[in-house]
Amino acid sequence: MTSPEPQNWQRRIQDLKSNFDRSVSGSEHLNQINVDAPGLGIDGLQQSYQQFISWFSSIPASGKLLAIAGGGLLGLSLIKTVFQLISSLITLSVFGVILYLVYRFWILPKNTES
């Protein structure tokens, strides 16, 4: 079995590099990010708010009442979930402190006596 000459490999590598460079230079616009997109920043937030206001004003009165009630229920549900999460974290912290105190004052002295 003979191995190909190193010059053939070097020429092949140069060909691959040139093909890659050509393909990258042709697709540079694919890697660009449009920072001035309307969905980003304060302008996007203001635009979304204006769209919401125009939508809300276009629905009938009963729809407005249902939208407000649904938003209120969703908001209260979100607040309840946050409070439950905070309560769980506090309970876990207290339980952890109690376990540490039990280990520190009852289990650790028994291990050092023997």
Features:
114 residues; mainly alpha; 3 helices
What is shown here, in short?
The protein is mainly alpha-helical and 114 residues long. Helices cover 81% and strands 0% of the residues.
Arithmetic mean of pLDDT = 83
What structural class is derived from the secondary structure elements?
A: mainly alpha
Estimate what percentage of residues fall within beta strands.
under 5%
Distance between the termini: 72 Å
* Weakly predicted, low-confidence segments: none
General description of the model:
- This protein is an all-alpha fold.
- It contains three helices and no strands.
- The radius of gyration is 33 Å and the shape is flat.
- The N and C termini lie far apart (72 Å).
Q: Which helices and strands occur, and which strands form pairs?
A:
Blueprint (H helix, E strand, L loop, with lengths): L5 H21 L14 H18 L2 H53 L1
